[in-house]
Design brief:
By secondary structure, this protein is an alpha/beta fold. The protein has nine helices and 14 strands. 40% of the residues lie in helices and 17% in strands. Helix 4 links the parallel strand 4 and strand 5. Bound molecules: NADP nicotinamide-adenine-dinucleotide phosphate (NAP). The site of NADP nicotinamide-adenine-dinucleotide phosphate has 28 residues, from helix 1, helix 3 and strand 4.
Length: 291
């Protein structure tokens, strides 16, 4: 199977490249060679590789900066997704497209289901929602996988930010936003499992993990993992604060919890325990630091 991956240098893209199943022929051009904002660039990549499946892990992911660079976020996350969907439709190949918990406003009590009404609070979330609509509108054979709070040993993410602050005396972390962290390699494993099914992918799914946590609790767990991986590591005093004390350019949902029951029922992919994946990630970060 010939697979085209966009965003191959990102967190999920890297995990996808590193965990590709035997027999998968991958092409993951850098964004300078395949810029999804350009329909011509997308078309050229399709002509060159003739994919049987496309996985779109490319995105503009700077949530706060998107408030200012809204046009850029829209061109990558909305038009870019649309360009890929149109090219897939022309070629007759399916698209697995990644989206986000930030399509929701977080006001629901309890985990979000796939057909709960989206209502993004920020420009990034709106751009991702427009991307979902562009995919659904242009291509029948699509699977949209919404993920949340992505972390891993590569790229920029909360776990890496926290470990980089480990020498500080005190770190204040928001404790009223609830969600479920998702390991990039867990998302990649789910995508490869979906891609390996005989049935053509279709519909919208939530990738969930467990247990539900807050950024503060996630930070606590990160530093506990760090102390376990490196008994000499210094870790800061953690102070829980409300979102109101840490204003950001982009408003974030207080409830980002996704319900993964549909993914489990249709694909046999159960929610992962992010604490196990966090331990492995922090051990990898400590190893990277030592080499
Ligand atoms: N990170 C999170 O916490 C989070 C949460 C929920 C959902 N998601 C979604 O999960 C998916 C993967 O996120 P991630 O964290 O792996 O992203 P990431 O690490 O920020 O990587 C983004 C990737 O997109 C590429 N890219 C950006 N603009 C592009 C363009 N115009 N054309 C082609 N490629 C372009 C980047 O390439 P360059 O490096 O060359 O720019 C990079 O490879 C995205 O759909 C994101 O919206 C992420």
């Amino acid at each position: 199977m010939r697979i085209l991956i966009t965003g191959g240098s990102g967190q999920v893209g890297t995990a996808l490249r590193r965990s590709a199943p035997d027999g998968a022929l991958l092409r993951a051009p850098p964004s300078k060679d395949l810029d999804i904002r350009s329909a011509a660039s997308v078309k050229a990549a399709f002509s060159a590789w003739r994919p049987d499946l496309v996985v779109n892990a490319a995105a503009y992911t700077q949530v706060d900066r998107a408030e200012e660079e809204t046009d850029l976020a829209m061109r990558v996350n909305a038009s870019g997704a649309g360009n890929l969907a149109e090219a897939c439709a022309a070629r007759g190949c399916p698209l697995i497209h990644l989206s986000t918990d930030y399509v929701f406003d977080g006001r629901k009590r309890g985990p979000y289901l796939e057909d709960d009404p989206p209502a993004p609070l920020n420009a990034y979330g709106l751009s991702k929602l427009q991307g979902e609509r562009a995919v659904r509108g242009n291509l029948e054979e699509h699977l949209i996988l919404r993920v949340s709070w992505v972390f891993g040993a590569t790229g920029s993410n909360f776990v890496k930010t926290m470990t980089s602050l480990s020498e500080r005396d005190e770190v204040r972390v928001v404790d009223d936003q609830h969600g479920t962290p998702c390991a990039a390699h867990g998302i990649a494993a789910a995508i490869w499992r979906i891609a390996g099914q005989k049935a053509r992918p279709s519909g919208t799914y939530h990738f969930a993990s467990a247990p539900v946590t807050t950024w503060y609790e996630f930070a606590r767990a990160t530093f506990a993992s760090l102390r376990e991986a490196d008994p000499n590591a210094r870790t800061p005093v953690l102070v829980p604060i409300p979102t109101a004390e840490r204003p950001t350019a982009a408003e974030r949902p207080l409830n980002s919890v996704l319900d993964g029951a549909k993914l489990q029922a249709d694909f046999g992919i159960p929610p992962a325990d992010w604490r196990v994946e966090l331990d492995a990630t922090v051990r990898q970060l400590v190893r990277n630091e030592r080499t």
